[in-house]
Amino acid sequence: GDSVTQMEGPVTLSEEAFLTINCTYTATGYPSLFWYVQYPGEGLQLLLKATKADDKGSNKGFEATYRKETTSFHLEKGSVQVSDSAVYFCALSDPGSGTYKYIFGTGTRLKVLA
Amino acid sequence: GAVVSQHPSRVICKSGTSVKIECRSLDFQATTMFWYRQFPKQSLMLMATSNEGSKATYEQGVEKDKFLINHASLTLSTLTVTSAHPEDSSFYICSAWRESYNEQFFGPGTRLTVL
Which chain B residues are closer than 8 Å to A45 by Cβ? Predict the structure, then answer.
């Protein structure tokens, strides 16, 4: 079945460092891919998404490109801030499955130090 | 943008009592909503898919008699945790499917603590 694999955390970076959080997926169809962010004690906020191969999602300095050839959707940011400290979830939705379910990765905790 | 609300945001109850959590889509209609459970420092686990006007579809291993779901209108789904026990303490998150966006929109979550 469909699955999402994220890199293990926690990831600790200094402010202004470059961030990469790896995400790979397996899907039988043509999924949509998402990155969500969760701050402590809160729900999920959509960070960015991509719905087809080679699409690049971007928001708040974060970017991710839908790579069909490597089945990846890695999250990147050129210069992280302390306020980016949160848990990041990669997810996929496979419209071809006939449901609207999301498959989530395990989440990657990011801690940014001043 | 679309907003999904949950009520209450926090609830503390005694063991053996039932607790109802509401999930509302505030500016769109949702025939399909989802209920998730999240344990500390873990990912979201889908509990069930809530379908307006019909029975919910539960994921494997989720007790349907324990977690009652009702989706009586296009903007409201409720999750009732019946005869709650301390092991039911968790963070419960709902989402609503918005057809025009082809995307789920998530609520802010409800923290349930059972004493």
Answer: 106
Cβ contact A105–B43 (<8 Å)? yes
d(CA A91, CA A81): 23
Tell which residue, B11, B39, B41, has the closest CA to residue B112: B11
Residues B96, A44: Cα–Cα separation, whole Å: 12
Tell me the nearest-neighbour CA distance from B31 into chain A, angstroms: 11
Q: What is the pLDDT of residue B41?
A: 83
Place of tokens 């210069």: A79
Closest CA to A46 of B16, B8, B2, B11: B2
| Predicted confidence (pLDDT) per residue in B77-99, tens digit | 999 999 999 999 999 999 999 98
Mapped onto helix, strand or coil, the DSSP state of residue B88 is helix
Residue of B51, B100, B103, B111 best to disrupt the A interface, most CBs of A under 10 A: B103
Q: Would the CB atoms of A104 and B49 count as touching at under 8 Å?
A: no
- Are the C-beta atoms of residues A47 and A36 closer than 8 Å to each other? yes
CA distance B65 to chain A (A): 22
Q: Degrees (nearest 5) of the Cα angle A67, A68, A73?
A: 40
